[in-house]
Design a protein that fits this description.
Layout (H helix, E strand, L loop, with lengths): L15 H19 L18 H18 L14 H5 L4
């Protein structure tokens, strides 16, 4: 997944727009400087979806953790370097 990422964030404040702007801007500046490039790093704007924790949280977590598998980047979710899956399941190599 070289053009997008997924976060599952819970925040009591209405500050998600600012958080995402800070993350995207800071990371883009870092990568552009490191690789001497310019321009956008990620495709399109971010999307935020408010979910019902009781009914959708598990499905969303499953979707996020299986995304690299479905994209044929890895064979299993614990192999994806940038995933939190190993923490979720208590995976020890």
């Amino acid at each position: 997944m070289d053009n997008h990422y997924h976060f599952l964030i819970e925040t009591p404040l209405a500050n998600l727009n600012q958080l995402m702007q800070n993350i995207n801007t800071s990371y883009t500046v870092f990568i552009n400087r490191k690789y001497r490039r310019s321009g956008h790093l990620f495709q399109g704007r971010y999307k935020a979806i408010v979910i019902d924790k009781d009914n959708y949280l598990l499905s969303l977590s499953r979707y996020i953790h299986l995304n690299p598998v479905r994209a044929n980047i890895v064979d299993s979710p614990e192999q994806y370097r940038w995933s939190s899956y190993r923490e979720y399941v208590g995976y020890l190599p």
